[in-house]
Amino acid sequence: MNRLFFRFFVLVMLSISAAAFIVYFAINRLFGDPLESIARNQAAAQIFLLEQYVDQAPVDGWLDRLNKVREVSDVRFDLIPLASARQQLPSREREAFERGEVVIDIANKALFRRVDLTGDKYIGSNEEAIYAQNLPIDIKVALQMEAVRYVIVALALLIPIGIWSRSHWRGLQILMKVADRFGSGQLKVRAQMKPGDSIYPLAERINHMADRIETLLEAQRGLLHSVSHEIRTPIARLEFALELLHDTVGDTVLEKRIGSMQGDLTELKSLVSELLGMARLDSEQPLRYETFDVTEALRNCANGLPPAEVSLDVSVPDGLGTYYGDCRLLMRATGNLLRNAQKYANGQVALSAARKLGGVTILVDDDGAGIPEEEREKVFEPFYRLDRSRDRNTGGFGLGLSIASKAVSLHGGTLKIETSPLGGARFVITLPPA
């Protein structure tokens, strides 16, 4: 919230500063320099004496009154030649000076004015100008006053901006939490906001989107689960029929074909089991949490693998301690990784584990061809296979890695792929502290 508040406050203050400069230049262009107006107001007493007292004297008494003003005023009034005055004045102010107006020199705290345009005051007065110095002009005070006003405005804006930012920030925090929970699989979660909240329309649209996504996912899961269950029945019938047919056939060629059909049926049965497993992972069924010994569980998982032509090196040390999670699900993920490594390894697979920062790290290495970096995210997608062949011994179904990724994700962990020291792929399971 502090970051949002600060950024918005800085934006507002920059806008106000820009507006102040624009106003200043606009007024300067249309009505003259505002600083000159301030200086003229500060020198108003001296201008008043000059215009209302000295200039109102009789023709032969003008100089006498000017001398009296000199005696009582702290301002120094001098008479200088017009040429000298014109030389000291900027070109943009000479026109006003020639018209007989009072011209303020802010920088030198002085003013200029012609004595007379026609020489009526005294002989030669039309060739002289009044030069008043040490005027009580202090632009710094005026600028300080403007700065104080600016600071007061800025501080006054802090309260409404803070209230506005806080209301928006609280709403955004709610939406962030809803998005995180929804993304983690809690499809029932929704943003609860009042109609008067500033981001209520956005929350409503997110809720509608969540409803639609939940409906689609539930329909997909239901269809997948139902179809998988329904397929099991004809599979069982085909298995039984093939068993009977195999027992009654005496033709060797036909027996081989029946055996191939039985292999295809076994593959189909395995696929249905994998689909049901995926459906269960996607459902909202709670995990079966328990405290289990990590070393024992990993060794049992490795020992339960089917025989393979490649060697399996299990380097799981004693004393890894216990972990609180769904042991069956985590070992299934590890088993899927091991079977995948056995499938693609040239001759060696390694399983290792370590305890780090209260969590558990499990490594599965192989000496196969490895996985290209551009493919490492895609292999966790359902039905995605690096080997595009349909051979059941190499291609698989493309579900094992997806199931492993989901199982680890449900525990709040991560599953990533690296390059193995053995030369092939390394799968790294990182489980957070339970």
Automatic annotation (TrEMBL):
EC number: 2.7.13.3
Top class in the EC scheme: transferase
SUPFAM superfamilies: ATPase domain of HSP90 chaperone/DNA topoisomerase II/histidine kinase, Homodimeric domain of signal transducing histidine kinase
Residues spanning the membrane: 6-27
Classification via InterPro entries: 2C_sensor_his_kinase (IPR050980), HAMP_dom (IPR003660), HATPase_C_sf (IPR036890), HATPase_dom (IPR003594), His_kinase_dom (IPR005467), HisK_dim/P_dom (IPR003661), HisK_dim/P_sf (IPR036097), Sig_transdc_His_kin-like_C (IPR004358)
Keyword Membrane set for record: yes
Subcellular location: Cell membrane
GO cellular component: plasma membrane
Topology of this chain in the membrane: Multi-pass membrane protein
HAMP domain ranges (all copies): 166-218
Domain named Histidine kinase: residues: 226-434
Superkingdom per UniProt: Bacteria
Chief location bin: membrane
Single GO MF descriptor: ATP binding
Protein name: histidine kinase
